Amino acid sequence: MCGIIGIILADSQGTVAHELFDGTMFLQHRGQDAAGIVTCGNKGRLYQCKGNGMARDVFTQQRMSGLIGHYGIAHLRYPTAGSSANSEAQPFYVNSPYGISLSHNGNLVNGKYLRDYLDKSVHRHINTDSDSELLLNIFAAELDKYHKARVNNDDLFNALKGVFRECRGAYACVGMLAGYGLIGFRDPNGIRPLVIGERLKSDGSKDYMLASESVVLKAHNFNTFRDILPGEAVIIPKNTHKPVFKQIIPKITYTPDIFEYVYFARPDSVLDGISVYHSRLNMGSKLADSILKHFNNDISQIDVVIPVPDTSRHSALACAVALNLPYREGFVKNRYIGRTFIMPDQKERRSSVRRKLNAMESEFNNKNVLLVDDSIVRGTTSKEIVQMAREAGATKVYFASCAPAIRHNHIYGIDLADTKALVAYNRTENDVSKEIAADKVIYQDLNDLIDCCSTDSIKDFEVGVFTGDYITGIEQDYLKELEESRAQNQKLKELGLGNSTVNSDSVKSEVDIGLYNSGDYAH
Ligand SMILES: O=P(O)(O)OC[C@H]1O[C@H](OP(=O)(O)OP(=O)(O)O)[C@H](O)[C@@H]1O
Ligand SMILES: NC(=O)CC[C@H](N)C(=O)O
Ligand SMILES: [Mg+2]
């Protein structure tokens, strides 16, 4: 899913890097693989610090001290295209034209076409397998068409029109044109989120921030904010320091990815006017209805509702209240282990569940427990958790999911390339119960989930992961190629070649050209 941030301060002598760094702390849950910041100094020079790792490890004090300038962008990466090579850490940069850097959240689904177009028609060199590098180069190629020494807002908006025309898929982006200012834009279906806010200063001037989630804005006192709309762009030039909004192309749909509400986003964010927290409470209450149905309205055989920390906590509580059953925190979460689902490989994910969650016997011993999680995806967590509940003495273990069964790829920003890895793939509910060794598995109904998130203005969501119908459609063979490339990356990683220098084109190397994309230059 990735997290993106852009900030421009009113004070042109100010330093933005600290706030960008602080902002990444609020979006770490969106990407744990790589982090990056690029700032722009007064002479229009860009300063960069990026590489693989969590934000706190990449942004050391020493590296941060070199990030000069009052505007800049940041990125937290959860790889969903290409590989997890250092060279694919974002923001990406191209020096021509004008010096552009870009942070992208989402996935393009017509990468093959874009790669071909960039190569054969506009002759731009692409150095990695990242779709974000393609997007940036499309933008650069569009801007190049004006053959101008200096561009203006209209040129930028027109170039974005070209981006919207060429790029298919999900993209919420913040970009920066060296010496010019900040840019933000969102795909015409509004699949991935992007919020803009302002912070009024005592002298009447304003700072501006763009971010994936409202929680970052609130935390930094950017109190007036709104969502960038599908197909809309904003430019905040450093000279005028006034945001200029433009609907670049008419919105096609307004269909945010429902998985933001199920799992991705922080509960204290409001995205597209929908409170993530409230949607999760709704999911818990609605799930109670399905549970009652499954038990023919007799839940006397359930003693206690227990959440699977972290994400399902609020839903599980609402579910327990609706069922009039006790709620207990039977699993203690180790706060030093990050999200397991977005870890890059399965072995790591599996062992992390046990390191992350520990069962308290007193809450399980001789009890029939109803475990509630936000979703069951590969089943890594649920399998382990059910077993832990039994080891802790549970008599019966029922497992309920706030999301419906996941049987399809998520193509807009979740690393779920291989459908066969999904525990519900080609399996019924009963099969899934057997697979995770639960006594019963209960899923939320899709229409109920949609109801939980709907508002007066947004009633449709991107739900392809549940239905296999994707809002943008996909390029022929896209899924097959995605599966193949992700499988190959996985194999290389298992062989320990993911970051090596072995002489093979398919190996992602630390020594991919480092001119603009190395993470280590700042040591
Ligand atoms: O079926 P799986 O493949 O295991 O995926 C689903 C699980 O992964 C996520 O937890 P995660 O540990 O990533 O994050 P959380 O702490 O926010 O719940 C999610 O909340 C589910 O618990
Ligand atoms: N999860 C995301 O948004 C990833 C962005 C981009 N597709 C990448 O893999 O770097
Ligand atoms: Mg979880």
TrEMBL record:
InterPro entries: GATase_2_dom, Ntn_hydrolases_N, PRTase-like, PRTase_dom, PurF, PurF_N
GO annotation terms (biological process): 'de novo' IMP biosynthetic process; purine nucleobase biosynthetic process
Binding-site residues for Mg(2+), renumbered to this chain: T311, D373, D374
Descriptive protein name: Amidophosphoribosyltransferase
Organism per entry: Ascoidea rubescens DSM 1968
Source organism, top-level taxon: Eukaryota
Location of the Glutamine amidotransferase type-2 domain: 2-239
EC number: 2.4.2.14
SUPFAM superfamilies according to UniProt: N-terminal nucleophile aminohydrolases (Ntn hydrolases), PRTase-like
